[in-house]
Amino acid sequence: MPIIYKILPEAMWLQAQKDRVFRGSEVDLRDGFIHFSTASQAVETAAKHFAGQRDLVLLYVDTERLGKNLKWEPSRGGALFPHLYGDLALTAVTKAVPLPLGPDGAHQFPPLTD
Known about the structure:
There is one protein chain. This protein is α+β, with helices and mostly antiparallel strands and 114 residues long. The chain has a single domain (3-98), classed as Protein of unknown function DUF952 (ADP-ribosylation fold, Alpha-Beta Barrel), CATH 3.20.170.20. The chain is built from three helices and eight strands; from the N terminus they run βαβαβαβββββ. It has a three-stranded antiparallel beta sheet with strand order 1-4-8. The protein has a three-stranded antiparallel beta sheet with strand order 3-6-5. It starts with a strand and ends in a 16-residue tail after the last strand.
């Protein structure tokens, strides 16, 4: 089962659980799709878009549960990034874990796999 990752504030994750769906962050809604990262992209995504932010959650998302609305499109440096055109059904989320800041100010990731 290929996994992709979504970084979001804990409050947004708690709201998604109440709503039983994640419709996207402000940036996602503006861009028209939900941004995800692969294992090799997640650390750079955190550093670029979430630097110094506390109270973040890392979602593990099963790509096989996303269907045809998941597209792989070029972004930073031409790398293919996963984008979901539609809402994220929480049934596709296999795990949600805290993404704390370490003493060096960088986010401390658990082991990630593609």
